[in-house]
């Protein structure tokens, strides 16, 4: 007898319940693309602290906000940036003042650590494992004598307790479709003990079955699915909406001072109990413009406006 599948679509409270004080939390996406902002804002509202935050090779505003509100005790990240909008102010300040532990690691070693966890290994050799200055300083890497007799490096497995991943759409069973910017998210999902998939919209299982090759995060890896309108805002959601440049600029300017950062979080995060309340603080015309960009891009031709079409398909 074939058992019926159970829905994985839950409210955000149930999804966030997977994250405990002290959890190792991995955040998917890359720079200002496909960031799990809806989920991260809820973590801040609940004050879940002493987190060990892991990123893809480039974290962004979500990481910076968690560090800024004091919820992170350790950061495992090669780089955290606001892209063209500047450095990540809270992370830069916390590292320079040593208020958090920064486990420095380069991108290739980070990915190898996730791959080791995904394969249930305790460690993995680092591809092209030349011993650089960064790698010598990393507490996550160890030098060993390779088969050639030369020193090589291995990175310990990076196993998040929970991963937050953003996809453009999913069915209720967690089969997520990332229409662009898949990057390292599948590997992080495989490496993690639990996975929460944040999506902009829910589609029918029939639609997923109609194009199974489009599934980038299979439901077998996903514990919970949470849907939210423009859930990645103010970052971009590939082929759904662009990053909100004005909002990121406003954040960067506010986060330059403690008073400004606290005011931003008070208004945009703690002052908005739901995603609808959060989006209501952004001018509707601006939000609509972010979504309309894709239609204009199609009209502009296959290259896309500003060449971003190719960027989102990587």
Kindly describe this structure.
The protein is α/β, with parallel strands linked by helices and 314 residues long. The protein has one domain (12-105, 159-296): 3-Layer(aba) Sandwich (Glutaconate Coenzyme A-transferase). It has 13 helices and 11 strands. The protein has helices spanning 12-16, 37-46, 61-68, 89-97, 107-118, 133-137, 185-191, 205-210, 245-254, 258-268, 275-280, 284-300, 308-312, and strands at residues 24-27, 51-54, 72-76, 101-103, 123-125, 141-145, 151-156, 162-170, 176-177, 194-202, 224-227. Strands 1, 2, 3, 4, 8, 9, 10 and 11 form an 8-stranded mixed sheet that branches. The chain has a 3-stranded antiparallel sheet with strand order 5-7-6. Helix 4 links the parallel strand 3 and strand 4. The longest helix has 17 residues, at 284-300. The chain starts with 11 loop residues before the first helix and ends with a helix.
β-strand percent reads 15-25%
Q: Give the uncertain stretches in residue-range form.
A: 301-314
Most strands sheet: 8 strands, mixed
Which shape, going by the Cα principal axes? globular
Helix tally equals 13
Number of strands: 11
CATH overall fold name: Glutaconate Coenzyme A-transferase
Q: State the share of residues found in helices, binned by percent.
A: 25-40%
* Estimated structural class: alpha/beta
CATH first level: Alpha Beta
Element order, helices and strands? HEHEHEHEHEHEEEEHEHEHHHHH
């Amino acid at each position: 007898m074939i058992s019926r599948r159970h829905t994985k679509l839950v409210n955000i409270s149930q999804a966030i319940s997977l994250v405990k004080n002290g959890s190792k939390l991995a955040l998917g996406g890359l720079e200002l693309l496909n960031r799990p902002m809806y989920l991260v804002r809820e973590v801040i509202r609940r004050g879940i602290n002493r987190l060990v935050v892991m990123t893809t090779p480039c974290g962004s505003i979500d990481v910076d906000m968690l560090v800024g509100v004091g919820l992170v005790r350790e950061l495992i990240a090669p780089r955290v940036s606001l892209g063209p909008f500047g450095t990540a102010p809270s992370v830069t300040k916390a590292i320079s003042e040593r208020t958090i532990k920064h486990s420095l690691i380069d991108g290739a070693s980070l990915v190898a650590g996730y791959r080791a966890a995904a394969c249930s290994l305790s460690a993995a050799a680092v591809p092209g494992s030349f011993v650089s200055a960064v790698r010598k300083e990393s507490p996550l890497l160890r030098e060993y004598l390779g088969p050639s007799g030369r020193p090589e490096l291995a990175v310990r497995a990076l196993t998040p307790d929970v991963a937050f991943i953003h996809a453009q759409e999913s069915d209720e069973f967690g089969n997520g479709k990332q229409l662009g910017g898949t990057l390292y998210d599948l590997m992080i999902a495989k490496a993690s003990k639990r996975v929460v998939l944040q999506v902009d919209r829910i589609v029918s299982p029939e639609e997923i079955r109609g194009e199974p090759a489009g599934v980038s995060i299979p439901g077998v890896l996903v514990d919970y699915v949470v849907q939210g309108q423009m859930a990645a805002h103010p970052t971009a959601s590939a082929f759904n909406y662009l990053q909100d440049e004005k909002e990121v600029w406003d954040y960067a300017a506010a986060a330059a001072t403690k008073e400004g950062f606290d005011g931003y979080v008070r208004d945009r995060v703690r002052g908005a109990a739901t995603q609808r309340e959060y989006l209501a603080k952004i001018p509707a015309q601006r939000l609509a413009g972010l979504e309309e960009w894709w239609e204009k891009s199609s009209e502009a031709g296959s290259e896309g406006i500003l060449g971003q079409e190719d960027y989102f398909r990587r």
